[in-house]
Input
Amino acid sequence: MYALKYHRATSLEEAKSLLAQSEDPKIVAGGQTLIPTLKQRLASPTDLIDIANLPDFSGISVSGETVSIKAGTKHFDVATSSDVKAKTPALSHLAGLIGDPHVRHMGTIGGSLANNDPSADYPSAVLGLNATVHTTERQIPADDFFTGMFETALAEDEIITRVDFPTAEKAAYMKFPNPASRYAMVGVFVAKTASGVRVAVTGAGACVFRVPEMEQALAANFVPDAVASIKVPADDLNGDIHGSAEYRAHLVTVMAKRAVAAALS
Output
């Protein structure tokens, strides 16, 4: 790691002030992505601002048909929450698939979304459920939040505070994990809500994305066979030693069918 200044913020206001004052700062909460990145010398921030112990920064609540998850909430807490299981079981299932027990007990939902790894699980749930990301400055709709590989709509001095997930009539998440990292080679979140059907794909491309053709087909007939013949073009998909772009394109259809079947079960 490179030399840097470490700050443990005691409030959101202090964290924002440190962000504004520092030359090239990074926020750390669970550190499950940032710390390995620093160890590999792939990032060299001047200041590390720790927000893991901020008061009232984690927790889950339900209001009507909305599940609110504060940014500092650990993946394990989402996976095991009785409220999440009751209202949005697909989200609980997704959280339980993230990484391994260590990652789930340390990683946070806010950190995952702010990092926006192209193979992360949570972005598919946020986009698939049409969630709203709340920050220290504003509210950002899911469709506007993810802008590219490791890129989001967040400003440099903006911090995620919570995410509001609408409940769904039916929803499920299915992923094909890399056997070593457990990251999604392809993960598909399917949700049928009062406002329509959404299909969100992670792991396949540079950034989480929706599949309008599948959404239209499922809106007409919410069964696995409705998406069986719909293929996502491989042109802009990821390809690496673990799987070609064409293989990932095939997996999108397979995981979508499985997700619909799971949502109906």
Observations:
- The chain has a mean pLDDT of 94.
